[in-house]
Recover the amino acids of this structure.
């Protein structure tokens, strides 16, 4: 897909995010907005996904297709929007986000059989391990497709992440491409103040990963270029870690660059101000 | 009169290892994972015959559970193995989110459960694992009683699609069940019929219950002994049918009295048919170092304790 088209999808996804969070007056807009470009780039351009009549078709095992795992499950709005826009489920269902009896739970889950979701996430630090397991299953099955996993930068404070970080290079899980959303923010404030992760690139390199950086994680052309580079590094004996620099709240000026919009919903006035900045390219749900 | 005799003693963990060897030969989707305890889990034969289907995880149990959950996406049947303490309490949230809530077909196989781990002491002697695991919605919880039953259970859970906690142990104990038994998840096994008291026992306590039954019979008391190898789903029908006949119950387990088999049976009785029930279990405490036999004696988990409990239950009728 052309960069311009991908940007249009990302704009609609950002509209979906703020509308979903506004609709239930809860959820996490900041990180969702910041990762919109990555998820759109992955699902609408980069990943091989089973489709029928232009719509994504879901099967749990995902044999022969690329798989994506969201470890920082609180940014579910961006994932739900991308999945719906890709055709996994009706876009109208976004109106049910975080409401009673919805398949769009606050944090992603397989429990309600929402197409596109393969594991529950929300309690942080678990997704990388799961992605590694799925990547190893692909190898055992002789399936040459890739597994992608997104984590937060605050999430790097969880111990299990480092168990997984040790494990993947040891077992040469080189069909795995992981991302850390480096937005520098977490609930209690800037990550460097809450718990300084220091040099994550050096850490992963020391653990045996192939590490690369995407400096402009909110520039679609940079994201697509970065994804291609990451894939070229895969398959050479090491798992690949992409440090993705994003802005929390990117695309909505008053939400940008602050941890204050980590988990806060906009009111009616703020919603209108946000939507005025985002093109309705695919039609609101 | 002896109802059950044994000619050989073996550890239940070896039953697990024997079951894994069979699965390795029969089911190409079965994958074994272990957190640096291959010898203790008796996985050597499986690994030797299927090196490509064994994943060494190192001392990283949380990651092992997550990797196991991921392996199911792709149709693998992962058997995640370590000591019971590290397989449950240490990784409760990983099991809760990535396995139970996600409905993944992961088999959590735990050795060295309970006091009979022995000399290592309380840090390793988990007595809360059955409770933690049975509280998870959708989790099947199995605690077999001897080598043969553990082997049969190991083979059976591979056929069942869903998360399972399989608990076994370290000490050598009598083998008294059928080597060719067909293990049915959730179906209690009638060890011997009786009319005066129902003894519901699980794990290592089944043999103690059998010995208790013989002592009671010598005193003219007829005990019905039922092996509840599956704590969840519980065979409520077997429990209710038995107490309808005997009018009182003893539960026996190598676990904290809070949250174990006893509480599960009590719920069934309270809801359906209230009869006196006595618990044989560890009385809300941690364990300690000692030989398995010394610990069973000190914490009141032997045949003579079951005999006394049976008499108390009968007296309360």
């Amino acid at each position: 897909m052309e960069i311009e088209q991908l940007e249009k999808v990302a704009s609609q996804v950002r509209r979906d995010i703020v509308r979903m969070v506004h609709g239930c007056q809860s959820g996490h807009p900041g990180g969702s907005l910041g990762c919109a470009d990555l998820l759109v780039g992955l699902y609408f351009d980069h990943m091989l996904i089973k489709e029928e009549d232009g719509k994504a078709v879901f099967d749990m095992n995902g044999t022969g297709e690329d798989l994506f795992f969201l470890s920082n499950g609180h940014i579910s709005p961006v994932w739900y929007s991308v999945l719906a826009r890709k055709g996994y489920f009706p876009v109208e269902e976004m109106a049910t986000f975080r409401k009673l009896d919805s398949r769009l739970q606050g944090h992603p889950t397989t429990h309600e059989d929402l197409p596109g979701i393969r594991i529950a996430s929300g309690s942080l630090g678990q997704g990388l391990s799961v992605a590694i397991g799925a990547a190893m299953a692909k190898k055992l099955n002789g399936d040459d497709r890739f597994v992608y996993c997104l984590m937060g930068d605050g999430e790097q404070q969880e111990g299990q992440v480092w168990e997984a970080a040790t494990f993947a290079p040891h077992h040469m899980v080189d069909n795995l491409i992981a991302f850390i959303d480096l937005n520098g923010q977490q609930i209690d404030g800037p990550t460097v103040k809450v718990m300084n992760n220091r040099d994550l690139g050096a850490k992963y390199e020391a653990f045996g990963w192939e590490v690369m950086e995407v400096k402009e994680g909110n520039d679609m052309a940079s994201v697509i270029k970065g994804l291609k580079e990451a894939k070229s590094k895969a398959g050479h004996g090491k798992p690949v870690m992409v440090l993705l620099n994003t802005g929390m709240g990117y695309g909505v000026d008053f939400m940008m660059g602050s941890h204050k919009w980590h988990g806060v919903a906009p009111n009616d006035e703020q919603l209108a101000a946000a939507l005025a900045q985002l093109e309705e390219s695919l039609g609101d749900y | 009169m002896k109802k059950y005799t044994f000619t050989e003693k073996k550890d239940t963990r070896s039953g697990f290892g024997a079951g894994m060897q069979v699965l390795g030969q029969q089911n190409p989707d079965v994958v074994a994972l272990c957190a640096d305890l291959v010898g203790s889990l008796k996985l050597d034969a499986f690994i030797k015959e299927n090196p490509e289907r064994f994943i060494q995880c190192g001392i990283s149990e949380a990651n092992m559970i997550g990797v196991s959950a991921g392996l199911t996406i792709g149709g693998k049947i992962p058997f995640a193995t370590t000591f019971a303490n590290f397989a449950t309490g240490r990784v409760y949230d990983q099991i809760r989110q990535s396995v139970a809530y996600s409905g993944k077909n992961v088999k959590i196989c735990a050795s060295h459960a309970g006091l009979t781990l022995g000399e290592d002491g309380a840090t390793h002697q988990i007595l809360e694992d059955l409770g933690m695991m049975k509280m998870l919605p959708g989790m099947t919880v199995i605690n077999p009683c001897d080598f043969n039953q553990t082997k049969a259970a190991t083979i059976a859970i591979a056929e069942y699609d869903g998360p399972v906690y399989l608990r076994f142990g370290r000490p050598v104990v009598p083998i008294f069940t059928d080597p060719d038994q067909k293990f049915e998840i959730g179906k209690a096994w009638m060890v011997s019929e009786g009319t005066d008291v129902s003894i519901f026992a699980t794990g290592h306590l089944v043999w103690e219950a059998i010995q208790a039954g013989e002592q009671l019979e010598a005193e003219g008391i007829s005990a019905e002994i039922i092996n509840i190898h599956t704590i969840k789903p519980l065979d409520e029908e077997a429990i209710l049918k038995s107490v309808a006949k005997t009018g009182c119950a003893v539960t026996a387990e190598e676990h904290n009295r809070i949250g174990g088999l006893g509480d599960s049976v009590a719920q069934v009785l309270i809801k359906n048919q209230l009869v006196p029930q006595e618990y044989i279990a560890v009385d809300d405490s941690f364990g300690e170092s000692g030989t398995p036999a010394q610990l069973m004696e000190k914490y009141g988990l032997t045949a003579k304790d079951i005999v006394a409990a049976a008499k108390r239950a009968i007296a309360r009728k």
Q: What stands out?
A: The first strand of chain B starts at residue 9 and ends at 11. The CA atoms of residues 125 and 183 of chain B lie 27 Å apart. Chain B touches chain A through 32 residues (CB under 8 Å).
